[in-house]
C-alpha cells in the first residue's frame, strides 16, 4: 500500500458522463480549480493521490446505469489504494442523493448538479474567488458549448430534467460575453448555445425572451465566426430570433427544435403546451423566414397514448415536412415524472420497430437532401485530418450528432480552419467533397 507523501500536491481527476451541459459544468469546475492553483486533470488514468470527481448523468436508464457502474469501479479503486477519494456530483446525485448514500457509503461526498461552487470550495484549501466565465476546455478545440441558462420551467410529462436541474435560471449577457471572449482567446471559432430550453433565455432576469439580442451581441465577439442554437422549445417561440438569424451571417442557418410528436392527443398527454397546428405553422414560418435553414428535431416513440394511428400520423408528418436532421428516442418511464403515473402501454418491441421505421424514412429524406447539394460549393469548418482526408462540417451540422463532409485530397487543410469545398458526391448522412483551390 503506497502512503501519500505529505508534501505531494493532490490531483483532482474529473470524470464526465452524460451530455454537453455536463461537460460545460466539468470545464467550469476545472477552470476554478486551475485558477486557484489546484492540480487538475480530466479523465486521466488513476494515481494513488487522486481525488476522483464523477460528474454523473441521470437522464435515462442506460445513462443512469453507466453512472452507477463508474461510481462502483472508482470505489473499488479506492479500496485497493489506487486512488484516495471519490466524490460524486451531477444529475444522478441530485436526483438520488439519499438512495446513493445508503447504497454506496464508500463515496466520500455527494453534491447535486447545482452545487459547483460548494464543491469547488471543498476542494480548494484557500478559495480565492470565483472567476466569472473561467473554463478549462476538456477538448481544446475550435468549437465549444456555451451554456446560457440552467434548469427548466417546462412541465413536459416524460422529463426528469426539472427534478435534477431545478428551475430555469439565465446567465447574464455580460457574463456570457466574457465567457465567449475567453473561449475565443482559447481558439474557439464556433459557439454552440445550449440550455435545457434556449428560447426561455432572459425571461427570469430581463422579464422578456432575449435569445435574439444575445445572439446579436455574441456576433461582435472577435474570433467567433459561427453561432449555433440548440434545444429551442417550440411553445411561445421568440420570432425575433428568426429576423436576427436571417440577417446575421455569423448565426448558422440551423436550429435544433425538439418537437417530440406531431399528433394532437399525444402532444397534450406529453404536456408540450402547443397544439399540432401551431407547431406545424411555426415550423413552416421558420422555413420561410430563414431560407435554406436546416431544422434538427427529436421525436419520441412509444409515449403512453401513442397507438398505431398516432404513430402513423407522426410518420406521415416526418415524411411530409422533411427535417434536415432527426433523432429518435424510445420512451422510458422516469420516476417522479407525470408520465410515470400513466400506463407504459407500448411494448419494447413496438418502440424499437417504430424507431427503426422513422430512421429508415429519415435516411431516405437525408439522402435526397444531400444529393441536391452535389455541385454546390460550401464553406466548411475542418474538424479533423487523417492522412489525405479531412473531415469537416457545414453550418447546417452540429458536431457529433449531424452529417460530416468528407474531403478527399484535404490533407493540407488544418483543423479549425474554414475552407471552400465543392460537393462531388452524397451519401445518406455524409457529403463527399474536394477542396476548391484558391
Describe this structure as you would to a colleague.
It contains 13 helices and 18 strands. The chain is 35% helix and 22% strand. The protein has helices spanning 20-35, 61-79, 91-103, 116-123, 161-165, 173-185, 203-206, 211-218, 240-247, 264-269, 276-289, 308-321, 348-371; strands at residues 11-16, 39-42, 51-56, 85-90, 109-110, 143-147, 149-150, 169-170, 190-194, 226-229, 251-256, 294-301, 325-330, 377-386, 389-393, 404-407, 418-426, 430-435. Strand 4, helix 3 (91-103) and strand 5 form a beta-alpha-beta unit. The chain is globular. It has 438 residues and is α/β, with parallel strands linked by helices.
Tell me, rounded to a whole number, the average pLDDT.
89
Based on CA atoms alone, the radius of gyration comes out at: 23 Å
Runs with pLDDT <50, length 5+?
Answer: 1-7
Distance between the termini: 62 Å
The portion of residues forming beta strands comes to 15-25%
Fraction in helix = 25-40%
Number of strands: 18
Instruction: Describe the strand arrangement of the main beta sheet, using strand numbers.
Output: 6-9-10-11-12-13
Structural class: alpha/beta
**In one word, what is the shape?**
globular
Please count the helical segments.
13
Describe the main β-sheet briefly.
Answer: 6 strands, parallel
